[in-house]
Amino acid sequence: MKGRATILHADLDSFFASVEQRDDPSLRGRPVLVGGGVVVAASYEAKAHGIRTPMNHRRALEICPGALTVRPRMEAYSEASRAVFDVFRDTTPLVDPVSIDEAFLEVGGLARLVGEPAAIAATLRARVRAEVGLPITVGVARTKFLAKVASAHAKPDGLLVVPPDSEDAFLHPLPVERMWGVGPATAERLHQRGITTIGDLARVPPRAVAAYLGRHSAYHLHALATGQDPRPVEVGRRRRSMGAQRALGRGPHAPERIDSALAGLVDRVARRMRRSGRRGRTVTLRLRFDDFSRATRSHTLGRPTDRTAALLSTARALLAAAQPLIDARGCTLVGVAVTGFEGGDAIQLELPFAGPDQAALDLALDDVRERFGSAAVQRGTLVGRDPGLVMPTLPD
């Protein structure tokens, strides 16, 4: 027997662009692009003209000549995100963040105190609009997957409840591209075999799909297509990674500019790691090229660290190894992430015991930036350069 529809997926609408329209009344109702060389967010008025993210800014203006461009304000977006998550956590203690602008909420235990999930979702939407000034869409369903699909279907600024006895009727007519894990390449493989809807996928035995998608993907997608998603709303999960990325715009870019962007990103990530008491082993470099293709390179250290110098040295080595790709294809985005976290107070000392001095310097710089802002102390390589767009992940 199926359970009740008690999971909410709350997703802010065109988050960055909505914050800009909230803060500048002259932008309301008009097509707005957020970004520089690359559009990182677009209002729904801009999306109506066919603008998508990421898209080259020049191309976006060709599609929509009347669009207004604004530079990103990451601190404003982070502040808005924290305010929205305050509303989430005031609604229910069971909040599972997904990103800076979306989360899952479990409200099944609130029926007697507050009301049914649909009523809770409606109240949450009204509070976010009234208290934060932003539109938000909510999907309500029995599973995380269905709730997320429902919220995507209800956008913008909508609410959709999928009752357990209507799941197949809602889900099966939708295109397979709506499923988690189905990108353009996977969709093309499915289309070649006549599988175009989620219902088609549900009717094909997973062992048959495994022949061209692989066993793990085939069984995972079949489970979702048939309503099987046992993942609970998890509270208190610590991030498995910390990262940041910066859009550079279309090049060419001198190696020095990419290196300075990377150094700024590593500074930011290392500071967040120390603030949360995390040390990681694996450093991953992420690159996006002029043709929108991507590449990642990673290296695992012998021991976990939160030291800026060690993380930057590793990231620079990965960048140097990827330089031939950058030379051939151009670079429009650079990012860095750290995974393989360990916590606790035990720290393996370094030889030749130079670590404490570097640790003291890192902590002193962290304190200055916390008190006076992230731009109060900068690397020499960043002086006089555009700080660019640094994308956050989840709200701290």
UniProtKB/TrEMBL annotation:
Listed name of the protein: DNA polymerase IV
Record's subunit section: Monomer.
Matching SUPFAM superfamilies: DNA/RNA polymerases, Lesion bypass DNA polymerase (Y-family), little finger domain
Gene that this sequence comes from: dinB
Site note Substrate discrimination, residues: F16
Job of this protein: Poorly processive, error-prone DNA polymerase involved in untargeted mutagenesis. Copies undamaged DNA at stalled replication forks, which arise in vivo from mismatched or misaligned primer ends. These misaligned primers can be extended by PolIV. Exhibits no 3'-5' exonuclease (proofreading) activity. May be involved in translesional synthesis, in conjunction with the beta clamp from PolIII.
Main EC class the enzyme belongs to: transferase
PANTHER family given in the database record: DNA POLYMERASE KAPPA, DNA REPAIR POLYMERASE UMUC / TRANSFERASE FAMILY MEMBER
Compartment list: Cytoplasm
Cofactor requirement: Mg(2+)
Organism field: Mumia flava
